[in-house]
Amino acid sequence: MIKVAILYPNEEGKSFDMDYYEKTHMPMMANFLGKNLKFYEIDKGLAGRTANDKIPFIAIGYFYCYNMSEYNEAIAKYRTAIVNDIPKYTNIQPIVQISEIRYLSK
């Protein structure tokens, strides 16, 4: 199983529409990933290391998928739709990391 993390850095002058991300973008992505998607998560940044520290990321989205090849195929197939949707909720260039899940507790 893999986990895809999409991180949206908190930078000066950047915007992020969490409502659109939750209700439109992530469900669209889940549809594109289909049965390969086990589940997804959305984090909304609240604080940094302490309550007074600036949040490092405005939001982080996660996709938990069974197969990396199938994930890559879906992203390639729907790339245009994905790229065209991003400006509808943010002007942030996301950072993406794909990881192998070595342990997942129940």
Automatic annotation (TrEMBL):
<dbReference type="InterPro" id="IPR011008">
    <property type="entry name" value="Dimeric_a/b-barrel"/>
</dbReference>
<dbReference type="InterPro" id="IPR009799">
    <property type="entry name" value="EthD_dom"/>
</dbReference>
<protein>
    <submittedName>
        <fullName>EthD family reductase</fullName>
    </submittedName>
</protein>
